[in-house]
Each structure stands twice: as C-alpha cells, then as structure tokens.
Amino acid sequence: MHSDIRRCSDWEATHDRPVYTLGDRCPLCGAPTENGAPAPFDPTDRYGEYRRRARPDRPE
C-alpha cells in the first residue's frame, strides 16, 4: 500500500506542526518532502523486540 500524501522533511525545525502536501517540495518552506505514512506492522518481525528495547522511553 502506497500513500501519496507527503510530509515536509524539515517540519520539526521550521514549522509548529507537520505540513502535508501531495508535491515533492513543502509549499511553505521549499524543503523536500518524505512519505508521512508509518512503516507497516509485521507480526513476524524477527527484530521487533530488539528495536523496541533500543527505543528510548516515551514521556508519560
């Protein structure tokens, strides 16, 4: 499954919130865009446990 909606790659430094577009460049700052969809979930992922263990804890 492929998403046509793209997100500004530099939104955290430039914008207050993510800027979404269909183009290859951000309409506000001109930075390149990236796919805004999360990676697909795979229940057979052999390394998922290690990746979750390496991820820093999220603030509650």
TrEMBL record:
The keyword Glycoprotein is assigned to this record: no
Stated role: Involved in ribosome biogenesis; more specifically in 18S rRNA pseudouridylation and in cleavage of pre-rRNA.
Basic and acidic residues bias: start-end ranges: 43-60
GO biological process, one term: rRNA processing
Cellular component, GO annotation: ribonucleoprotein complex
Family as reported in the entry's similarity comment: Belongs to the NOP10 family.
Organism encoding this protein: Halorubrum rubrum
Stretches assigned to coiled coil: none
Positions of the UniProt region annotated as Disordered: 31-60
UniProt KW keywords: Ribonucleoprotein, Ribosome biogenesis, rRNA processing
Gene: nop10
Protein name in the entry: Ribosome biogenesis protein Nop10
Lineage summary: Archaea, Methanobacteriati, Methanobacteriota, Stenosarchaea group, Halobacteria
